[in-house]
Amino acid sequence: MTLKQATRLLDDHQYPTDTAGLVDAHGDYELDLPNGSETLAEVFERMGEETYDSAHEAREAMYCALSSKAIGRRHYSDRDPMPLGTFGPDQVSF
To answer: Is the peptide bond preceding residue 83 cis, with omega within 30 degrees of 0?
Structure first.
């Protein structure tokens, strides 16, 4: 499922709820991410035992707990130069 679909799923959940409630209800759903996939259970378990009073809080938690599989190319920016004195990946031109 996409992140947008997961957001709708969380919007339809009954609140307040806690991490265990979200994992029980939606933990088996698998998120399709740019660099792989992970279940909602894996995402929410990174947050520990939390209580969510609204869908907004649950969505924010989901986006904050996504792994690096969700960010596309790591350490890539086509706009920001590397700060002086630091060394990062070599620039790639397409």
So the answer is: no
- Structure pTM? 0.72
| pLDDT higher than threshold 90 for residue 94 | no
Q: 27 - beta bridge partners? A: none
Q: How many residues does the chain have?
A: 94
DSSP 36-78: EEEEHHHHHHTT-S-EESSHHHHHHHHHHH--GGGSSSTT--S
Residue 53, beta-bridge partner list? none
Minimal CA–CA distance to 33: which of 75, 73, 70? 70
